[in-house]
TrEMBL record, chains A, B, C, D, E, F, G, H, I, J:
EC number: 4.2.1.104
Entry annotation: catalytic residues: 87, 90, 113
Keyword Lyase belongs to the record: yes
InterPro entries, alphabetized: Cyanase, Cyanate_lyase_C, Cyanate_lyase_C_sf, CYNS_N, Lambda_DNA-bd_dom_sf
The protein's name in its UniProt record: Cyanate hydratase
Protein species of origin: Halomonas aquatica
Amino acid sequence: MDKLEMRHTLLAAKARKKLTWEEIGKSIGMSPVWVASACYGMNSATPDVAKKICKVLEAEPEVATALEAFPTKAWDEAIPQDPLIYRLYEVVGVYGDTLKDVIQEKFGDGIMSAIDFSMEVDKIEDPKGDRVLLTLNGKFLPYKAW
Amino acid sequence: MDKLEMRHTLLAAKARKKLTWEEIGKSIGMSPVWVASACYGMNSATPDVAKKICKVLEAEPEVATALEAFPTKAWDEAIPQDPLIYRLYEVVGVYGDTLKDVIQEKFGDGIMSAIDFSMEVDKIEDPKGDRVLLTLNGKFLPYKAW
Amino acid sequence: MDKLEMRHTLLAAKARKKLTWEEIGKSIGMSPVWVASACYGMNSATPDVAKKICKVLEAEPEVATALEAFPTKAWDEAIPQDPLIYRLYEVVGVYGDTLKDVIQEKFGDGIMSAIDFSMEVDKIEDPKGDRVLLTLNGKFLPYKAW
Amino acid sequence: MDKLEMRHTLLAAKARKKLTWEEIGKSIGMSPVWVASACYGMNSATPDVAKKICKVLEAEPEVATALEAFPTKAWDEAIPQDPLIYRLYEVVGVYGDTLKDVIQEKFGDGIMSAIDFSMEVDKIEDPKGDRVLLTLNGKFLPYKAW
Amino acid sequence: MDKLEMRHTLLAAKARKKLTWEEIGKSIGMSPVWVASACYGMNSATPDVAKKICKVLEAEPEVATALEAFPTKAWDEAIPQDPLIYRLYEVVGVYGDTLKDVIQEKFGDGIMSAIDFSMEVDKIEDPKGDRVLLTLNGKFLPYKAW
Amino acid sequence: MDKLEMRHTLLAAKARKKLTWEEIGKSIGMSPVWVASACYGMNSATPDVAKKICKVLEAEPEVATALEAFPTKAWDEAIPQDPLIYRLYEVVGVYGDTLKDVIQEKFGDGIMSAIDFSMEVDKIEDPKGDRVLLTLNGKFLPYKAW
Amino acid sequence: MDKLEMRHTLLAAKARKKLTWEEIGKSIGMSPVWVASACYGMNSATPDVAKKICKVLEAEPEVATALEAFPTKAWDEAIPQDPLIYRLYEVVGVYGDTLKDVIQEKFGDGIMSAIDFSMEVDKIEDPKGDRVLLTLNGKFLPYKAW
Amino acid sequence: MDKLEMRHTLLAAKARKKLTWEEIGKSIGMSPVWVASACYGMNSATPDVAKKICKVLEAEPEVATALEAFPTKAWDEAIPQDPLIYRLYEVVGVYGDTLKDVIQEKFGDGIMSAIDFSMEVDKIEDPKGDRVLLTLNGKFLPYKAW
Amino acid sequence: MDKLEMRHTLLAAKARKKLTWEEIGKSIGMSPVWVASACYGMNSATPDVAKKICKVLEAEPEVATALEAFPTKAWDEAIPQDPLIYRLYEVVGVYGDTLKDVIQEKFGDGIMSAIDFSMEVDKIEDPKGDRVLLTLNGKFLPYKAW
Amino acid sequence: MDKLEMRHTLLAAKARKKLTWEEIGKSIGMSPVWVASACYGMNSATPDVAKKICKVLEAEPEVATALEAFPTKAWDEAIPQDPLIYRLYEVVGVYGDTLKDVIQEKFGDGIMSAIDFSMEVDKIEDPKGDRVLLTLNGKFLPYKAW
């Protein structure tokens, strides 16, 4: 079973059981964003976590094997088209130089890792319109001279 | 004076006066990321704020006029190459579908605005390596049927 | 049932029943353009509206579920090729800077939302050749400093 | 004088004289969007109109010659990056098939001309947020068999 | 039956019956280039003509329905690769500016329509090598100020 | 003097002397389209013809040398953007396969040369709107087995 | 049977019968490179030659029909990736301007035809490493003024 | 002096002295194609050869230094546009798979080097039209398992 | 059996038998990176080695035939997306000019072959985080004048 | 002084003083590849190292400031064209999946860092042709679940 089939299986099970990523995350002790990314095939799970995901979603053991596999990460469109995802791309385009300058002023020459990294989505309720709070947390890696 | 010349003038002044975005932001009462984005030419300032920026950086009045102008936002590379900015692009590519699903599960069908939007960079000190905390805060805009 | 299958099912039903978007829109109390976009899989319907669409087009309940799903919006060609769609792309290319200037002169720095948005197609009869009147109506979103 | 120099000259004059496209359009009897497009170098003016524009903006006769020249229309980015212009591109991408279907249902096989064409921008004031009303008006051209 | 299946059906029938586009065109009173384009799925036929094409090629009624459908025109390669088609693309690239200047000198600012348009292929026999005569005939559409 | 400078010089002279391509072509005994293409730098002239062009347009001898040089042909946009030129590109895209089939049915396997090639632009006056007649004339080159 | 199926059939037969292009070419009196190109679907064969190829490779008559068909030539990657083919592309990139200059110095303004064209591959044995000798032979086509 | 300036200097000198690549090559004992490629900046010359080229073309010593520099090879268009160079690209596209198969059948798995490589242009006079004979000679490099 | 099917077969067998590339390489006397590349279909094996691979992985004889076939090498994305592979691409982008200069300073004008080439992956254990040691070993090929 | 000007200054000084990267590296106690990358503007130096580089190459203090600046890394061609650099790109394309599999088998799910990273170029003398030994050394970064 490859990652694509695994993803279809898990998303179908989640819909059938009417569970949210929030609930699945809570019941297995992981963050909802990470659980979603693993079910979408963009992260690998440890055997232990894979088993838990399969238990919550009542999936076959071969789904757990697929969850443990190390993914080859890829995406369809170099420039995303879906409006929600495009807005994030636009933020990177518009504010990329700004963020580079502010981060490197604070940390020195280096990058924010996208590997030693986590993410969180929160909802700020507001009568003028709720707001999405997206938090990225990555280790700073300094360039080293050699 | 166009935005490009304005940017060169302001970055040179900032270097000459050895100020940080943090300090400039504080002294004019705006966030450091926003101040940087305005000086990079990616946001327009109100006349009042433009004047304050010019005062802190000892710039000519025509720089203030340039800060007030509404920018045409553009970036050089559809797929960014600088490693710090690429990592952000990679996050959007790898986690785009995941974020869409988690956000829409929480908010319904719609997007996180990149216009009614703010951003913040924080440093989490950690003996195993400091971490960058990047917070995006955007209004949720629901699609409406008509 | 995914959006693609839903679309094929609904377009086939519409052809079989010889209904126009105008008629379907009228019978369910929505605009014809919106109804078409939902059947093409580019917008999600509320449960209530989804049921009505399925009733008019005599479709199975799983089609209603597909109509309710939040779509991942994508299109085939970055530069459209079909002549009708290309002409719209050409308008954006030729008049993009012009529209930006005229809109921002009237509203300030910001954008016209494509989310809090509606559209209408009308026919102006004219002996020298009928004319298409295409109306776009989007909320103005101002950039905010922070 | 080429179209680019003409554009810089006219936009600078407009800023200096603090005129809006609305006001310029009114004073010469043309639509504000069309006047802007001609000054941006995307349409040619008749000698008479070119002279009027130059009179309002106090420009030299060679600017009038440049306004009369037939432009070679081009734009920088196949996929626009400025957020205001991108939103229009997104509308074409997301709703292109829908518009094609709705228009051709009303008019038969053919296209909406982008040449025998006009456009208008209006403001709808609304306490919940003003709205942009963008109207495109193009002749319908039917395909003919031969 | 979609346009692709229709095309396979009609081309196979044409090969089986050993008919040329010339002959099919003559027998139904249309130009050979137009008939070919309709059978390739790039133009729609009136019910009457669709029926005639099906009669000549002994095709089922559903093929006629497919011939009447309004096509979504698309092509595989932005820059064509087949040598015969590439040569035409090369002509547009090499002589595009020249043609624009010569046509607009004769007609004013505007375009040659590709919609209100017809085309013809003729053979000029020549002992030094036969020549292809390709004639494009399109309505001139002037830009109008508004 | 390179081809670009030559082009600017010749187009300026032509405007100054208020000559059309038609008139220049007639006075030197060549076709107007070819003369335009040579002045645009897309074809080389024989010494004799180069001298004649320079005489008509009162240009310096070094312009004649530039006219004689063999051009490196190139164009800016793989997919043209100017509406007049795009319409020609669209014709190649929409009708490419059709033309290939009709030409090869008449001539056998091979191509229409874009080198041993000429072109003509004519105006057909018509009360319902004048028409552009564009004629391409290229030697047929058969593929040979070896 | 289309060209792709024909190609699979012929390459499989060639492998099964352990024949080389050299041997097939010799037995039917054609060059090995041409025979390979025809079996790969990049050239059409005369009925006579098609029959001979099918005889040598013991293929069905419908394969002969496919060999006679005029191919639509296309290739997968605008910039080839296979190292052997990339090296040829690199030669065109690195030496393109050089070859243009040397050829046009010898022949005048024009091109080397890729249609009235043949090619040959030879092996030069050499103790320091064998060498590939690739010979391209194309008719020179002069541009003609008109 | 960089390669670009060197190229302009050498091509201007060659034109002024009315020398051909053939003549320059002969007088310094190198092939005309190689000499052209070195003067175009696509190959480096040994100090001895660089001096000879400068002597023949009466160039300054700094030109010799530029000829000795190791070039960074690059070309403008991934897909060439000049018709002469495009035809060579087309040959690689159309016959790439064929050549790979024929070469590897003769030599085993490996490539023809574009580094340990030479090239030659010859003219075959023919009353039906002269022919260009282009010969590529590259060392065969076998892949090695390790 | 083509290379793709061969790859699926061999990777499945490797997983079933729980073997590492290290172990397979050792048992057949080849390097683990090379064995992996051959099983991925990116190198051809000699009959002898192919048989050994099939023996270790208990694969059918037709898999051995597929291992011996000369591959057409290709990859999916011109700019890789998987983070591990992208980092290697980034190294080539960031350090390409540097490496060219350092290598050519040491070796003269020429390249490092990617054909007469081998590669090795080693692990350097380190309490602060293990390190990957990637060694590329390629023959230097000097450009030769001719 | 920006990185580009700095690079020109330092490369010119290095040529004038006839120093190699090897010698410069040795005299300041850093690796030759790293020194080259810093002088090419692809890495930042500490104030101390920047001063040493300027001393060896007799450069002005403002060059030292430029060496200390944090670079925005970018490269010209997504797919490199210079043959030496392309060969490295080809290695990533051909062996990318192989390396991913071999590295992750040894280290688990994660990447080799291109930031906490160093590189070395060595020469292996060999009578059959010298070999380039390129060593990449990067910290392994494991993905972490969160």
